[in-house]
Design the sequence.
């Protein structure tokens, strides 16, 4: 199976994707860049508003931004065209008087906000509200519970995106793959909830001492949404948000690549909102250790996913499956429906 298949292209084009948090794009020239199916999309604060665009110059297509994220002027290195506040500035304009310069524009994607989360879509088949199937109020509240990006972790995952995503959807593997990391939270079977193609797994922690410790830490935070345990949201098709007690949020993407058996994996950790009286230094070591733990967990996931060939995947449920793989069954059903509707 080639990742650069029609189904992946369609899922990217027709759906809304939560790609950024407002805190990452708060100032003029802030950007975040993503690779997707041989193309790139950049979210950019152009000095007036936040836009999402195809990372190519409207002149002759040179790539504009190279980095993953940061603060940089939109300037094409090839012939010096630039862009700000909704306008393209052409270098040596007098040499282009024979062209209709008023027709120059970036190739933009649609952007929509749910609270402080930015969703992007090239050509949505339905509204964001419809796609979220009742999750908008919860997402909006969650988006106000984080204040800054703490960690940015990105690599080319050596696995098909469907394999990588399904691994993230099932906790059946936790004790075998994450014995020293995630398994130490002693996650209980918890509960799955479904919202259209999206799903949530909420798992109370099984270790009472850990729960008491987390509850006492809660006093330092000002969280508009908190689940007392581990909560993992899956937003169809490529995005996951996971959190323990809401102290931080890990936003992960499993974006299809144009290379077979590869996934553009990105995970970002955002720190939870603190009470006005809490000194940030007090919480920093805790957030840092969460970031380190997450990185270790993703490495472990990556190692095991590399062992699963892409052609083991199909839209049918696996013949044998554990109750804790239920969300994976739901994903395959959603996938089938999404790629086969007219
Ligand atoms: S390609 Fe960008 S200015 Fe020419
Ligand atoms: Fe895992």
Sequence:
């Amino acid at each position: 199976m080639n990742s650069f298949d029609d189904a992946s292209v369609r899922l990217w084009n027709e759906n809304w994707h939560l790609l950024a948090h407002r805190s990452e794009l708060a100032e003029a020239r802030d950007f975040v860049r993503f690779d997707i199916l041989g193309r790139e999309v950049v979210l950019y604060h152009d000095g007036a508003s936040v836009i999402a665009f195809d990372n190519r110059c409207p002149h002759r297509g040179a790539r504009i931004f190279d980095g993953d994220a940061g603060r940089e002027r939109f300037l094409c290195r090839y012939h010096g065209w630039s862009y700000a506040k909704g306008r393209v500035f052409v270098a040596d304009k007098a040499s282009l008087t024979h062209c209709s310069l008023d027709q120059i524009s970036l190739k933009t994607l649609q952007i929509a906000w749910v609270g402080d989360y930015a969703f992007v879509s090239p050509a949505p088949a339905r509204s964001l509200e419809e796609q979220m199937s009742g999750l908008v109020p919860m997402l909006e509240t969650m988006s106000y519970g984080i204040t800054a990006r703490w960690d940015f972790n990105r690599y080319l995952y050596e696995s098909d995106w469907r394999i990588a995503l399904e691994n993230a959807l099932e906790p059946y593997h936790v004790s075998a793959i994450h014995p020293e990391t995630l398994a130490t939270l002693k996650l209980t079977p918890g509960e799955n909830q479904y919202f259209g193609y999206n799903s949530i797994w909420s798992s109370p922690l099984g270790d009472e001492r850990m729960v008491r410790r987390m509850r006492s830490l809660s006093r330092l935070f000002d969280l508009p949404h908190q689940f007392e345990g581990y909560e993992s949201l899956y937003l169809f098709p490529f995005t996951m948000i996971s959190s323990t007690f809401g102290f931080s949020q890990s936003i992960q993407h499993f974006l299809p690549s144009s290379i077979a058996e590869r996934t553009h994996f990105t995970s970002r950790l955002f720190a939870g909102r603190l009470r006005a009286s809490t000194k940030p230094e007090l919480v920093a070591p805790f957030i840092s250790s969460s970031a380190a733990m997450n990185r270790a967990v993703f490495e472990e996931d990556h190692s095991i996913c590399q062992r699963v060939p892409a052609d083991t995947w199909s839209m049918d449920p696996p013949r044998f499956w554990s109750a804790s793989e239920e969300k994976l069954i739901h994903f395959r059903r959603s996938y089938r429906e999404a790629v086969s509707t007219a």
Q: What stands out?
A: The radius of gyration is 21 Å.
